[in-house]
Amino acid sequence: MASAPSGVDLLKHPTTLVPLASLVLLIATWAHHEHPIVLVLIALGVGGSVLAAVHHAEVVAHKVGEPFGSLVLAVAVTAIEVGLIVMLMAGGGDGASTYARDTVFAALMITLNGIAGLSLLIGAWRHHLVSFNAAGTGSALSTVVALASVCLVLPGFTVSAAGLEYSGSQLAFAAIASLVLYGSFLFTQTVQHRDFFVPVGPGADDESVHAPAPSTSAAWTSLGLLVVSLVAVVGLAKLLSPTIESGVDALGFPYAVVGVVIALLVLAPESIAAVRNARGDRVQISLNLAYGSAMASIGLTIPTIALATVWLDGPLVLGLEPMQITLLVITVVVSTLTVVQGRAKALQGLVHLVLLATFVFFSVSP
């Protein structure tokens, strides 16, 4: 578990210097960032800010405890995703209408199969068998499935609007339903049944978890630096997006690959944090991060995008293609079989990672 540096040392700590330096880099290169050396510096700034965000999120998490800790990081990472999607959609382009769908669906596949699968594989490989609360994790998974169905599956079956789009009233309903589902789950997770989302098994007694919590001032400082880190990540990623799009186009890949790259980028902090917890036999926290991020990715992104359509021009395509729906259904079935047991072997983690690899491969070669 991360510990916060104190006093004057905080000003010299890399996790303080890197996000501040990245923010300065963002301001300095906002207007001119085409030179290859500048792009390399921007990429380094994104990577450093991601690692700093993980550190500061863990400091805050240690202060507030679970499940609030994983919730802080999930919401923070989703803020990156929403900001990126809105900025990329505002920039226009051929793929602007599908940015939200492609990025949110990629986030779903990465969280449900990538983060969860890697956590289960590493945790079970290291500890032979990992345990988690099936009731809490199952309720999180069911909420994710409901959100994905309302926001990503149904638009392809409605008849009020053409293609894979929602009409204005349908989009408003989906946005409200998303907020209701997400808010209800947060109440369940943090108030009504908080004990269903805390670590179980040997990892629950890990000494690093019960180490002295950081001071209130250190926690507030880390919260501020977490915000700075996230601003740096979203801003610098925006500067990198034309390069990502050009690279995807030069390789002849479908435009949906841009959404995959963006999702991989913004979910890096949660992936690192989930793996760290899995190594410490705290897979419950890893799954909180995975499913919490998947839930926030839809439950917060879709309402924000729906509101943004008031001033954004062009169509908003949310409905999944047949192959994407097939992958989602397979993922839901496999995830259900994984969660219902309340414990998992390394094989189950590997199955999820193979599904992620399948998603990535067929995104590149549909």
Give a structural overview.
The chain has 366 residues and is an all-alpha fold. It has one domain: A middle domain of Talin 1. It is 73% helix and 1% strand. The chain contains 14 helices and two strands, in the order αααααβααααααααβα. It has helices at 9-12, 14-29, 36-64, 68-90, 99-127, 134-153, 168-192, 216-250, 256-266, 268-279, 283-299, 301-308, 322-339, 346-364; strands at 130-131, 343-344. Strands 1-2 form a two-stranded antiparallel sheet. α3 packs antiparallel against α8, α4 (68-90) packs antiparallel against α5 (99-127) and α7 (168-192) runs antiparallel to α11 (283-299). The radius of gyration is 20 Å and the shape is globular. The N and C termini lie far apart (41 Å). This is Ionic transporter y4hA.
Radius of gyration: 20 Å
Number of helical runs?
A: 14
- CATH fold-type name: A middle domain of Talin 1
Could you tell me how far the N terminus lies from the C terminus, measured between alpha carbons in angstroms?
A: 41 Å
Number of strands: 2
On the 0 to 100 scale, the average pLDDT is: 83
Poorly predicted tracts of residues? none
Assembly state: single chain
What's the helix-strand series?
Answer: HHHHHEHHHHHHHHEH
- How many individual domains? 1
Shape: globular
Strand content: under 5%
- What is the CATH domain class? Mainly Alpha
Arrangement of strands in the largest sheet: 1-2
Class from helix and strand fractions: mainly alpha
